[in-house]
Design a protein that fits this description.
The complex is a heterodimer. Chain A is built from no helices and eleven strands. Chain A is mainly β. The radius of gyration of chain A is 13 Å and the shape is globular. Helices cover 0% and strands 52% of the residues of chain B. In chain B, strands 2, 5, 6, 10, 11 and 12 form a six-stranded mixed β-sheet that branches. In chain B, strands 3-9-8-7 form a four-stranded antiparallel β-sheet, with no helix packed on it. Chain B has a two-stranded antiparallel sheet with strand order 1-4. Chain B is globular. The termini of chain B are far apart. Classes of the chains: A mainly beta, B mainly beta. At the A-B interface, strand 4, strand 5, strand 9 and strand 10 of A face strand 5, strand 6 and strand 11 of B.
Chain lengths: 115, 115
């Protein structure tokens, strides 16, 4: 597609339920990133994929968070047993592989509200 | 670990005036990249400008320019002839120079352009 696509754009879920957030990167981009942005805060890095592998998952806040990427394209971020503190905007981004300093392009985010 | 500091949580500027947003960073690396992203109320993170650390010349993109002071680890953004559409959160970000690595963000500056 023309840009990074994320779904759903908004999700309200009950505490304790599992949620899945989807990211479809720009075609040809092999690097994919997930960030979390809490209300009025900066961006917190969660996980980074190069192809289907995750060289850096240091930002995942707990074992309730997991992510996978298949076919070197679409990625899914799963949050199990959601808590109210998980409420945030989850941003996905992608960039070209190879070289250094490639510009990272962002999607519009998935706004998660846990009630 | 790298850190990025934006010391101005909020700023305002009159339309058509010039405003400068400050950013400092801390790193032991010599090769890296610096970025300014804009996030309007739509949530879409939009790249404003980027700077390669090995380049001495300051980057410029139309009304946007940076003052990159490598020794001082400072990377400020100047917006000339401010427009109402410039109203947004502005994030300064750092990327290591080795391969595709995640961006490290500052906490942002909320800029309001006043008519």
């Amino acid at each position: 597609g023309a840009g990074v696509s994320q779904s759903p754009s908004n999700k309200v879920t009950e505490k304790g339920k599992d949620v899945e957030l989807r990211c479809d990167p720009i075609s040809g981009h092999t690097a994919l990133y997930w960030y979390r942005q809490s209300l009025g805060q900066g961006l917190e890095f969660l996980i980074y994929f190069q192809g289907n592998s995750a060289p850096d998952k240091s930002g995942l806040p707990s074992d309730r968070f997991s992510a996978e990427r298949t076919g070197g394209s679409v990625s899914t971020l799963t949050i199990q047993r959601t808590q109210q503190e998980d409420s945030a905007v989850y941003l996905c981004a992608s960039s070209l592989a190879g070289g250094t300093g490639n510009t990272i392009y962002f999607g519009e985010g998935s706004w998660l509200t846990v009630v | 670990a790298q850190t990025v500091t934006q010391s101005q949580p909020e700023m305002s500027v009159q339309e058509a005036e010039t405003v400068t947003l400050s950013c400092t960073y801390d790193t032991s690396e010599n090769n890296y990249y610096l970025f300014w992203y804009k996030q309007p109320p739509s949530r879409q993170m939009i790249l404003v400008i980027r700077q390669e650390a090995y380049k001495q010349q300051n980057a410029t993109e139309n009304r946007f320019s940076v003052n990159f002071q490598k020794a001082a680890k400072s990377f400020s953004l100047k917006i000339s002839d401010s427009q109402l559409g410039d109203t947004a959160m502005y994030f300064c970000a750092f990327m290591r120079g080795s391969g595709n690595t995640p961006l490290v963000f500052g906490k942002g500056t909320r800029l309001s352009v006043i008519a």
